[in-house]
Write the structure tokens for this entry.
Amino acid sequence: MHQYRTHTCGELRARHAGDAVRLSGWVHRKRDHGNLLFVDLRDHYGVTQAVMDVSSPVFGILEGLRPESVVTLTGTVAERSADTVNPKIPTGEIELKVTEAQVCSVADVLPILVHGEQEFPEDMRLRYRFLDLRRENVHRNMLLRSNVIASLRRRMLEQGFIEYQTPILTASSPEGARDYLVPSRIHPGKFYALPQAPQQFKQLLMVAGFDRYFQIAPCFRDEDARADRSPGEFYQLDFEMSFVTQEDVFNAIEPVLAGVFEEFGGGRAVTKAPFPRIPYDESMLKYGSDKPDLRNPLLIADVTEAFRGSSFGIFARGIDKGSVVRAIPAPGAADKPRSWFDKLNDWAREEGAGGLGYIVFADGQGKGPIAKNLEPGRIDAIRAATGLKDGDAVFFACDKADKAAAFAGQVRTRLCAELDLLEKDVFKFCWTVDFPFYERDPDTGKIGFSHNPFSMPQGGLEALNSQDPLSIKAYQYDIVCNGIELSSGAIRNHLPEIMYRAFEIAGYEREHVETHFGGMLNAFRFGAPPHGGAAPGVDRIVMLLADEPNIREVILFPFNQQAQDLLMQAPASVSPEQLRDLHIKLDLPKAKIKTGNGEG
């Protein structure tokens, strides 16, 4: 018999009854019934109930053992009686009658409990992450993550992609988020950077003729944490293709993503390919976001003309100054009490808006403060634009186009929650396409790139030379699931003359482009194929599949909100000798001195 185990703690079934077996694992839970001691033994694979009576020599060994101690138990498999079967676990039909016990490791008093559903502060969970990872839900999330990555890899290989590894130490890029820098010992004063993404390398692979690349790629960005973004590092399914159009990219990745969500979605419905394509302008109008959550059935409408020149002065004057009015429907809300509308008005003010005006439709007419200042024809126009009927209500957002869209999107989300309209148990995918290539900075008035400067502008060089820059669209796209952006992507600009002109419009000299992107530009001069790709975020995919609200729940050893690893105590100080080897002297900010009045 093996020294530690003949089976795992998730393996034994009724067919093993009478077998002599040995199991090893952690003491998950103990139940002392006087003459009988029950121990739930847990390992990576599951839980098996072990039992011994008070006359057994192993009773004393296990009775005083703390939870999470590691033991090896030897005994005979026995079927449980019908009234003691536990249908909640796969091994619930049997138990182990223990005859021998060996303690492999005694656990100290636990700082956080593994058994049970107790909640613990985040700092405790991260400081003792090795214990937190033993908890059932967290452990299951990590298994899910591993299985999802294996499935993504298999599906990409089946699509004809080949996996390559790109460098981790590279050059700093002036665009995008902040880099993590790595000082060079043998080149004093110079630094490597950890890649924010393998973007330039994967494009260079296309220039090198590899045609279809993918990688489960680590990316590093020094940026603040969010619920759907981990500070420090994250992983993405990075891929690139040669000689493709935008639709070719969509057709390649849609079956991969749909297949993974069908495989691990637990029976939840998944959008069938082809996923809806929603132009950016339409998305901002109808959903108030370029990341539309299609589970929300509410559609925003433009009702600017219904208020233009009207007696409702606040909106009319705003329209004269360049504002627009967006209408957000609230079906079935007419019977809500006045306090419900007042609560939404208060919420809008907390969000920085002036308020949240509304009209209620009843008895064939509009009612409420706004309706009193509108002619019946204008009210009918609003009703027609929103598709509402008696018993419904409509709310309004009035501001400059960008701000009105953003606030209307917030209202849409809030009303969906208030009215319980969100579709359940479904993963709804879409593509947001036709992003604007440029945007105007509201503070400086200057033209700048709105998204990705390396995308191919629709219309190419001719569009750059002849169109209003703000009218130019890009072959640029985002893939969205349930309102979460999984990836940005693009058909790349592979022609140097177009890249020079695109940057020139944004105010960059030719020398700037050559200095910062010379490696890729040089490669393009020697024959570059048209190419494009994207990079869906692995962490976000798993977060959606696990139905977790925070991305840290699907990462093995995540940073906290302050980008600290509490388990390994990183970042940490290093020795003077290490700094000397790197030719680095520290110039730390001065600590604030507290005064008697609490000011520093």
Notes: Residues 114 and 136 are 8 Å apart (CA to CA). The chain is about 30% helix and 25% strand. The radius of gyration is 30 Å. The longest strand covers residues 20-32.
